[in-house]
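Intended use. Records like the one below are meant for learning the mapping from a protein sequence to its folded structure. Do not use them to infer anything beyond what is encoded.
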Amino acid sequence: MPPSSLASSPSLAQRHALQCLESPSRGLSALLHASGLAVFAYGYRHLLVTPNPINDSYGWHMQYLTIIGLSISTASFTCGLLADVTLSPRLFAWKNILSVASAPLEVLISLLYWGLRAIDPKLVVPEWAPPLDIIVDWCFHVAPAVALTADMLFFSPPSTVAALPVIALSSTIAFGYWFWIELCFSYNGFYPYPIFELLDPPSRIVLFATSALSMALSTWALQWLYSRVNGSLEAGRTKRE
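Structure written out for the chain above:
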């Protein structure tokens, strides 16, 4: 089947009534995903070429929530770009599944990082860590949230995840990350973020519980924003009818 026929195939041409722009597609959707991956790759390059004590520590840079979020975002956009190139509904579905976690997580990471940095940069940047220039800082702590939010708003169907699964996912990520950094600490003797050094165990429980709630709120805020931009599911049903 020639590409023109494949692109016009009903199963690929159809999209959710509320989805703003065509995706998967070899146009704007592919441009967004390719651009996002290029920015993410620039961030990874910085990790590989910049001397840093954490390079040789247990857990590598995956000790940072920022890099965990970036990795999930990279997986999501990789599926998205492959779906754009191949026009695969299955890869498109995988992109949407991954974005359920990656989009609100990136929003949470940006809010936490810039919020704590505004209070005191030493809460999130260790004294022994090499300084981040503004471009790399934005690649890690701004661009992923912007790219994932844009993808969710304009190139994805509406998320229908209910409240309890949202809370369960957010709690699993937050407390799973806590377990992970404690494991890394047992090997390395230091935490990736200085704020953890300042908190006793009960305070860390509060911090991670608050983070889980914040991620859930980010999910609901993104769902609300989607409905403001693209309309509600009820409107979509009426539109199809």
